[in-house]
């Protein structure tokens, strides 16, 4: 059995081989992306025989909810089970009229950032296009019918630039009108910073926003926090980011996770200001979200504000990421680890776990 979401691109051919008209593909897309259908039986404007044939060839979706946590501020965090038993996480955030989703690109992660829960056990595999689109559709279904998804960030588990062959087709379905119809300006790819892959994005004329996870202003510190930096270096990363900006015209964001006593001093802020002067369009500072079993700490409010003052004085546009969903604030990757360390009891799987 195959998953329909992995065959969206070839659906017209599949239909043509069965003597069906190609507009049937558009009808199916409409049911999936706009009507939020969860079964072929719902697709009532398709001939019954075609619905039966689709059901015997394809499963609609390759992801299902294993755990669902809801915070009073409207944030929902879902642990999803994939067909092979692996798990990934994704998040729905509500902020005013915004309905943003944070989506995973891999099971685990190979980048090894020392503070991050997702990569603690390395990478298991890339997600398929269908599994990435499946997260989007499942999150969309959490919204009432009159609400639409407005923003997507590829900031869940995994390194999206290490899985571009599946991430790009998935984002294509997110942005095209017969898909979710979300403007590329509202789609952000977050990366540890792989220059070759950034150049590929530029060469393919990508129109998505790029967020680069910097976390340190000099190589000695970045090598410690983000081990892949050893074979890249900050300079070639910033050069690649510049090239992407030139081609795409999209605002660049740099992300900086603040770790107490590690990269949060006034001197760190000064080095960062110097590095990003004239280059940076937005610096997104994220106070560390503690991970069970790791000893990194969140900086004190006074350290955070001293850090901010230096950058503001230097004229860097800076945003501090709001802590959303505090009650369910396991950093991305933690829910999955919890699941792995405690084999799921079936009756437990969909119970909300608030607080
Ligand atoms: N691999 C991509 C996307 C994944 S995570 C990347 O590196 O950008 C998205 C962001 O969350 C990254 O900046 C990552 O470093 C950060 N992050 C990971 N663990 C975190 C934690 N425990 N607290 C705060 N930010 C974290």
Short characterization:
This protein has 2 domains: 2-59, Orthogonal Bundle (DNA polymerase, domain 1); 63-349, Alpha-Beta Barrel (TIM Barrel).
Structural write-up:
The chain has 355 residues and is of the alpha/beta class. The protein folds into two domains: 2-59, DNA polymerase, domain 1; 63-349, Aldolase class I (TIM Barrel), CATH 3.20.20. Helix content is 33%, strand content 20%. It has helices spanning 11-17, 23-34, 48-57, 129-140, 164-175, 195-203, 219-225, 234-248, 266-276, 301-313, 334-341, and strands spanning 2-3, 58-59, 63-70, 76-82, 87-95, 98-102, 106-108, 123-126, 151-154, 187-191, 209-213, 252-258, 282-287, 318-320. Strands 3-4-5-6-9-10-11-12-13-14 form a ten-stranded mixed sheet, with helices on both faces. A two-stranded parallel sheet has the order 1-2. Helix 10 links the parallel strand 13 and strand 14. Helix 6 (195-203) packs parallel to helix 8 and helix 9 (266-276) runs parallel beside helix 10. The chain starts with a strand and ends in a 14-residue tail after the last helix. It binds S-adenosyl-L-homocysteine (SAH).
Entry keywords:
elongated, TIM Barrel, 2 domains, binds S-adenosyl-L-homocysteine, DNA polymerase, domain 1, 14 strands, single chain, disordered C terminus, 355 residues, alpha/beta, 11 helices, ten-stranded mixed β-sheet, two-stranded parallel ribbon
Q: What is the fold-level CATH name, i.e. the topology of the largest domain? A: TIM Barrel
SS elements, strand count:
14
Query: What percent of the residues sit in helical stretches (DSSP H or I)?
Result: 25-40%
The secondary-structure class comes to alpha/beta
Distance between the termini: 39 Å
CATH class of the largest domain: Alpha Beta
Total number of distinct structural domains: 2
Strand order of the largest sheet: 3-4-5-6-9-10-11-12-13-14
Largest sheet: 10 strands, mixed
From the coordinates shown, what is the CATH architecture of the largest domain?
A: Alpha-Beta Barrel
Average the pLDDT over all residues and give the rounded result. Answer: 91
User: Which small molecules are bound?
Assistant: S-adenosyl-L-homocysteine
Tell the overall outline.
elongated
Radius of gyration: 21 Å
Helix and strand element order: EHHHEEEEEEEHEHEHEHHEHEHEH
The DSSP helix count reads 11
Query: Into which percentage range does the β-strand content fall?
Result: 15-25%
Poorly predicted runs are: 342-355
CATH superfamily of the largest domain: Aldolase class I
